[in-house]
Every structure is written in C-alpha cells, then in structure tokens.
Amino acid sequence: MSALTFQALRSLADGRFHSGEDIARSLNRSRATLSEALKRVPDLGIELFSVPGKGYRLAEPIEFLDAAAIAKRLAGVEPRVGLEIVDEIDSTSTRLNALAAQGAPSGTALAAEWQDSGRGRRGRTWISCLGGSLTFSLLWRFERGAGHLAGLSLAVGEAVARALAQCGVERVQVKWPNDVVVDFRKLAGILVETSGESQGPSVAVIGVGVNYRLGEKALERIDQAVIDVTQCAPAVPTRTQLLGEILASLAATLARFDAHGFPASRDAWRAMHAYQGRRVRVFPAREAAYDAEVVDVAEDGALMVATSDGRTVNLASADISLRTR
Ligand code: BTN
Predict the structure, then answer these.
(1) I want to staple 218 with a disulfide (CB 3.0 to 4.6 A). Which of 21, 129, 190, 278 is the partner?
(2) CA quadruple 7, 13, 14, 15: dihedral, nearest 10
(3) How many CB atoms neighbour CB 239 within 10 A?
(4) Is the pLDDT of residue 290 over 80?
C-alpha cells in the first residue's frame, strides 16, 4: 500500500463524499495518481464508493488512532510505555521481536493501522480490517527467567479484558489460555512470545488484536465465532481510548507479574472465567481430542480439567471449545 493511499483515506475518514479533484489538490497529486492509489483500498478490508459527479465516499467513517491523545493517557503510567503508530506493517509482533533482539527497551509498543500478515496462535493468521480492529504489540523485559513466565498470557488476557470492561464493553470474560470473549465469541486474541535465560532476565513480545468493527469482508474470512466492540458496548469507546486504557492496564499488570507471577492475577482471572464448570472439548497439540469439565485454573496458569474417567488433568497448553451437546 502506498503512503498516498493512507493520506487519501485520511481525507475521506469522515465517511462523507469528497471530490477526487479536491483530494488530489490538497495532496498535491494528479487525479490519475490519486485514482491509482485508491484502487488498492479494497485490500484493506474496507469499501470505497466512487460516484461520478460526487466523488469518493467510504462505506463507514474511519477513526485513525490519535497518537497525541494516547501519549497524554500514558503520561503518568509507570513503568513507562512508549508507543509508535505506523500506517502499515506486516505484523507488529514480528517487528517488535526484531527490535527486542536489537535491545529495544521494555515498554516499547507498536500499533499499526493495518497489518497485512497478522499472526495468531498456533500458526494461524490474524484477520483485521483498516479502522475495524486494534492491532498492536508491547515489548516487556522481566527480571524473572523465561522458565518463570508460566501464566503470563493469562495475566495479559485479564489485563486486556479489564481495560475493555472499563471502557464500557459489557459481559467481558476470559477464555483459557488467553482469549477475551463476550457471550463465548472472541472479542480479542493475544499472542505472547517469550525468550531469554531460564533464570532471567527474559523478554516477552505481547501481541494483541481487538475486533472493533468487523466488516462483512473480514467476517467472511474468519472461521470462528467472533464479536466486535460495537456489538457489546452501548456507548462505543474510540479505538484511541481503548488502546490507551489497554496499554495502561498492561503496564500495571506486567510490573506486578514480574514481582509476583500469575498468582497476583489469579483471582481476578477466575472472576472473569467464562468456562468455569463447563463441559469442553480439549484439543491438545499432539494428542487426540477428548471431553472434560473445567475445574479451575492453577497457580501456574494451567487449566485444570476433570476427565470422564475421574482424573484431574492440568493442561499447560491446548485449545478448548465449548461442548454444546
Ligand atoms: C490469537 O488469538 O490467535 C492471537 C492473535 C494475536 C493478534 C495480534 S494483532 C497484533 C499482533 N501482531 C500480530 O501479528 N499478531 C498480534
């Protein structure tokens, strides 16, 4: 995508008609160059109408992230979080992993208006659309070793869920290990990638994707039950507001995690646990799937399930889905 495409989309962000001539003039480009730059817009998962005599109009207005407002929200936050916002990137997590290897400081955050190769857990693709998702990553350095980061992804899920609830999103819950759900539909996904010495220090790149307003095109490509912020917040918060609150919530939670580990977040996590006491299907990475009942979450973040033969199994990693029958 060219920089001009994003400049033109900023001119069109209010969702009203703007003539090609006006936009081209304001950006100091020819109409032909503008029209070429706007041809790629459908690749961003959004719809642009072009009406002869009226100009261009976006199907939905787009709220671009407001870096100054987020910096203001994060001004007093300790430990410090420094955010950069880019228009386009392959994946904020891929980029932050590279920056981590180059020594970037703890608290470095990177948000992208558009990711063209967003990554999810277990090698999946994370699908988003311009203005309809929040996609960002946060680099955090820990004193504790990589071997003592068990439960980190749950603590992150709880911090994200709490921030969403504070912004007015209703019925927010967590799904083990680290999804944020509403009514058992996925609202946000979290990808935690860790490295470092087993006895410390260690580093985590925490990638967060929040479904904000998923258009039809994005929904067609997603193969699981999802929900977006606009569907579960009576007064819909802005993406800018959400990003500021989530980063502030994460900073507090991650500092606490470094000092005390998952036990410091465990009660809050349990209070938001959507699957407590539920019958689920367990999908371990390398074994056959089986049915079980969710009992609790352990101090190290493992999910405790009771199997049909009466055993309690502590799952360190797996996927689960609700059993409806
Ligand atoms: C999942 O539920 O599978 C985790 C999804 C994580 C997606 C986010 S979007 C920002 C960051 N960059 C990525 O490439 N992935 C994470």
Answers:
(1) 129
(2) 120
(3) 24
(4) yes
